[in-house]
Amino acid sequence: MNLQKVFTALLVGFLPAAWTPAEPPRHAEWELTFQDDFNGTSVNWDVWQSDNGSRGPDKLEGRWPENNLVKDGILYQVTRKENPPRGGKDWSSAHIWTRTFEQQYGYFEARMKYGRYLNNAFWLFRPLGKRFPNPPHFEIDINEGHTPRELAMTLHFYMDIEGDRDHFSSGKTWNAPMDLDRDFHLYGCEWNEKEVIWYFDGQPVRRLQHPLCHATADVRLSTVIMPRQLEKDKVALDTMDGVSMAVDWVRVYRKKRDLAAPNLPELEKYEIPKIVKRAPQVAGTGKRRQALKEDFESAAVGALPSGWEVGDGEPVVAADAPKAGREALAAGGKALKLAPNAYAFRMLDAPVTGRLEVEFDFFTPRGEGLLFTTLGRFDKANAELRKTSYYTGDIGPYINWMRTFMSYYTEQEKWQPFASSKRDRWLRARFLLDIPKGAFDYYAGKDLAEFQNSGPFRGRQKAAHGIALRHRGTSGVVYVDNIVVSALE
Asked: In CATH, what class is 14-258?
């Protein structure tokens, strides 16, 4: 009889239900390679390294070593309201990673308790930089947990495609049967040569085939305030002062040998995105009736142009639009400028129920995205619908420029790349839309006559009542100019 297992079974009977024995999965034999139980009076800075300063202009917080407190064997990553502001930020949070420890493959686990309205993150990272100059580069989010019960398990990886560095990801959420900010739980993942397997309280909950995670990565703990969730639940931001994620310990193991075939969830296969060529679907012939023409030259700098409306954020007209590649396009000194997450829309004077042609210039900085779609009918007086009308209900093609690829989205195909796109320079796009058919064609090149690819709408649209533009990145600005919308009769 295994006395250790008997002792553990008896011990569990006297402990709270949320407590789970700390051991790696039993289908293999493991050796411990890293452990921190936070038993000192402070973080061991010989083991961990910390962010020490302000984050980007679009970020709510800075991150500082002092936000990592150790007390009674627990690491607290504390959120603080800074008064006066520190590093130009009103709020601060925490982020630490292993200073020298890194490992390829193994079992990684932490015993943690969520902080409410935080992104409670335990993750592995191999970023491009001085420490990891050579590919592959990837991120395994063991959990980016959101209260009350959500686990968010994501794999991010980075590849060079067509001379441009691109980012891909596969995420999945899972809801626990209890509120996760009330007690400690175990969050872990097994990473091997072929798969990543995510665990909650010792039970596997997701299994994903990974494409290229074959190198060492460091171990990280971090938090971020989630203002959109606060806004959704009508909770004041000031309530976040002092909220923390609590970490009892972090442990890492290396597999020595397999012992048995584990009982695991169904394997999810991840295929690296590739462009699927389609034939043209929309006839470009017929008389054109102009439904909208906008070059923004008559708009006042710093103001929203006439006829345009804000769905979310504050897009404005700017005179200092980037000049790169502009010589090949129509002249003009002003453009619609969209800040991160900003959303603007323009309703047409009359809805279009047949075929539609949409042309515009666009400039998307490296790493930033632009979303374009045609809008159906919606209640503009509804504040929530104003923010989400680009996504919900009766909408047309749902097209995003992000990094190397342009992609369309449907509930069935998710984000499907259909064309490549250059960054950091002005380009012009032409879309032919067939609303009854629910299909679009995309043209680029000289005179916008070169067919690139086609795709489906996100949903069945009855009529195009307007066009919508949204910045889908996290920093910088996106510009749009010289918009022409025509109905094909």
From this structure: mainly beta
